[in-house]
Hints:
By secondary structure, the chain is mostly helical. The protein contains 15 helices and no strands. α1 (about 5-45) packs antiparallel against α14 (about 305-330).
Amino acid sequence: MPEPSAQSPKKNYFLSGRFLRKALWMLLVFWGITIISFVVIHLAPGSPTDMETTLNPLAGEAARKRLEEIYGLNQPLWKQYLDWVWHLVRLDFGVSMSADARPVMDKILERLPLTIGMNVASLVLTLLIAIPCGVYSAVHRGGIGDRLLTILVFIGFAMPSFWLALILMMIFGIDLGWLPMSGLTSLGFEGMTTWQKICDVTSHLILPVAVYTFGSLAGMSRYMRACMLDVLEQDYMLTAKAKGLSGACVIWKHGLRNALLPLITLLGLSVPGLIGGSVIIESIFALPGLGQLFYAAVMARDYPLIMGNLVLGAVLTLAGNVLADMCYSYADPRIRTAGSR
């Protein structure tokens, strides 16, 4: 019988090979995303030079050609893509074509903390509310609580986020006057103390985070209920009950961990929505986040800024898949065992 030490190099070899294959596949996917995105945004009607020449009666065809030469738009599309990739390899997204002509990386990093912070806070609140609600609905299936939660879920599915945002602004901002309706800070923010600044920013973010949370709460709780119902019918749950374990121990220790596996996939897929789902909410509440920046870039046909946001979305998509794999292996020991063979 071979010694355990003789098997460890082989084990590490397979782990390394699996990791390299996955990394190579992610690079290929990322490359494909950049190609498709680059081609699609250039096929869209309009050009970055339209904003600078169409609205200026003094700018003629010569000025348009000069701007296209400055921006490199007179080059073939394949050459423009290769130039962009060459800058991307050096972690340089280029310079924005807007009037400020700032580096794209600086503009993204300036808006990134707000968008990520709001979405992370919303995701944590959603999980803290949706998981207990889903488990309760599954355990008390058909009861009054389950029916009330089902009605609330259907209301959440049917209610558009922009309409909910306007309703909350009208109630808490206009009628009651409890919360600010737009912006990130109030007048005189610079003269406030540190604690006053924290409270002021928090008060401006309560309504946007509430809209984020309610919009995703409905689907997450219903998904959790379906997963928990499937787990409750498994044989090992009946065996745990037959051994005399308490109902809470069976549900929260044995059932919940297995019911979270499908939910992990949903969480991994929700990571790319950190940017796309922020466009409407940030525009309504006038928040200086990535969603508003991406919308302004699309309207202005700011190609470098658009590609910078799309690259960030692609990275978040791939990161979501990796995060889902890691959570899978943590929640299910069988996956760790299979991956180490």
